[in-house]
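Prompt: For my understanding, could you write out one protein's sequence and backbone structure tokens?
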Amino acid sequence: MGGDLTMYVPGDPLPGYLAMPDQPGPWAGVVVLHEAFGLNDDIRRITDRVAQMGYLAVAPDLLANGRIRCLARLFGDVQRGGGESVDRVETVVEWLTDRADCTGKVGMIGFCIGGSVAFLLGCKPVVDVVAPNYAKTPSVDRLARSCPVVASYGGRDRIFGKEAAKASAGLAAAGVEHDVRLYPGAGHSFMNQSGDHRVLMALSRPLMSGGFRRDDAEDAWLRIEAFFSRFLR
């Protein structure tokens, strides 16, 4: 359904993966942001799934200029609440909305570090709806400017699971429409499937209890699809 491409955005050319729906366009767009493993087959699969939902979906490779250097910048920018890597993703949104086959409405979905970046961009806001999964919650003052949010967390994830209550409370206080759910039996990355993921999750199991959980993942996808349909159609 999709294929690799290079996006010519401000700065260095940015590799990515683009998937289109089967039905005629134009379509609303969705930017898919990967975990710390970069643009792998799992993220391509997820991008195809988003396209099957009826969206023009693109996944940029945010680690294309060197995994360690780019990861360090990503994590640092998330902690600071913005920076070069976050700005880079914003150029991807602009690239998508500039396409003739995009309606101009754009959502964003991200996982772990990608979810944290998505959450930040949802608070600028530069997108119409955002789906951060097992992500860090932006500060309260940023949440007050957020677009609608549908977020998912694993209850056995001792690092990010606590972010569910923080996100829900902050969004509710700000009056932002949201659907935040904690899945008690799930750990970190319960929506992702990749070989790299399984190795790392095995090493970090005491803290994150990571691993794909099909039933919880499918429930999260149903919520995302319903939420996106409300704000992107």
Summary: The domain at 2-232 is CATH 3.40.50.1820 (Rossmann fold). The chain has one domain: 2-232. The first strand starts at residue 2 and ends at 7. The beta strands are 2-7, 14-19, 27-33, 56-60, 102-111, 129-133, 149-154, 178-183.
